[in-house]
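Researcher: Please translate sequence to structure tokens.
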Amino acid sequence: MENKLWYQKPATKWVEGLPIGNGRLAAMVVGNPHGERISLNHEWLWRRKYWDRYTEDRSDYLKKVRDLLFSGKFEEGTLLANEAWGGNGGVSGKPCRIDSYQPAGDFCFKLYKGKVKLFNGEASNYYRELNLDEAVARVSYEIDDVRINYEIIAHLIYDMIIIKISSENGRIGGSFWLQRVEDPECAISFAAEAPTIKMKGVFQEGMEFCVEASIKARGGKIWTEKGCRLEVADAEEILVFVDIGTSAKGDKVRRDLNTFCALNQDKGMDYIPENEHLRYIKPELEWKKILDAHIKEHARYYGKLRMELPFAQKCVPTDQRLLEYDVGNDPGLPLLYFNYGRYLLCASSYKGDLPANLQGKWNENINPPWECDYHLDINLQMNYWIAEPANLPDATEALFTYMESLVPFAKKAARDLYGCEGACFPLSADAWGRVTPEAYGWSVWTGAGAWLAQHMWWHYEYGQDIEFLRKRAYPFLKDVALFYESYLTEDCKGILQVIPSQSPENRFVG
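Model: Translation complete:
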């Protein structure tokens, strides 16, 4: 059981769900027999209130702050430093200008027995699992003498969320719809024309997105109900294909986002949300072929390493194992934890453009904690600590591409904020790659570049790819080193110091 999370009851809250993802798309499966809700995310669905923010010239403050600190006036120097480089957010009382990662909405369904007859009984013999070796979430239960099974994958070749629903004894139907939490800053519209339902959204700032679900019902009937739902009756098997598109790569949204846009934009593609899914291969309609192709592709990444520990793996539900571990009765549980960590990094980074954010790629809140952003004071880095030693080198591509996208703005920040050469990276950032201090009380800190650069060096150490070192790692390391060479200053004893600086997570008492 070292490669499977499994439970004998549904999730009672979102965070207890089963996460699946392929880098671009992500979903959380709750597993409720009386009404399933699969929350959906797209890696590029961020607010764009502040996507075009820039640093301003604050370099004159550096000598003033250093003079105060060198003379022992630490409180005055700290206050002036925060005025110079703290930015909004933090303890400033002003709104942070980091855009937030947004949910795309939910795909929901209630199942019927045969034609249009709702299940009324209580579910029994309940089982749900996340198979880490296969990257498949499964839910199974009995209700009204019918055994229901469904499987959900974030397909790694077809690049969409695919769901298979079936019954072991008899035909099945259901009601299917899309929804999103009420948000006064996002206008939502719905459309349905069998076999497809769509939900379109547009934020006040102009970012658009579209969620589309298409249904194939083998041997059954599909029709539109109430203008925005699909009904299925008397099917032997139901397949659902869910895709999401955004306008994030359109020129009107990202007109000057350096080479990162060019790296990921298909020439000639009109980036309206409805067209994004046209870039991807249309799937087979036979579930076994769909599933087998997905599992095989997953094994190419996740299957590169296997760890064994000399402990018996207990065959009890994962939530019970956690309780046992708390009292010292399950020493083998860390192996499952290790495998789950590898799985989550793969699911966040497989074939996406962007690296794993503060919550990977999973978020159901319109106001997520810390904007669900990229904290470069170790949160982003720790997502990828496991990549090289756990033989997941492919997962780092999204991280390195993102790091490289920051560099032009980081060079501007080094000049504007401190009058220095090289590149200086912020404490926090978002999908747009802007480099501005946005955490008053924490942002007088310059350590992010070194921590980021470490990942490029590790990638070379483990892979020994001299071309990667020459073409990607060395230019990044050079820009980071140039900043520190320029920023270091001598104290009264002639010792080079990083001043001003602070720990981003600790403070002096008082």
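Researcher: Any highlights?
Model: The longest helix spans residues 396-418.
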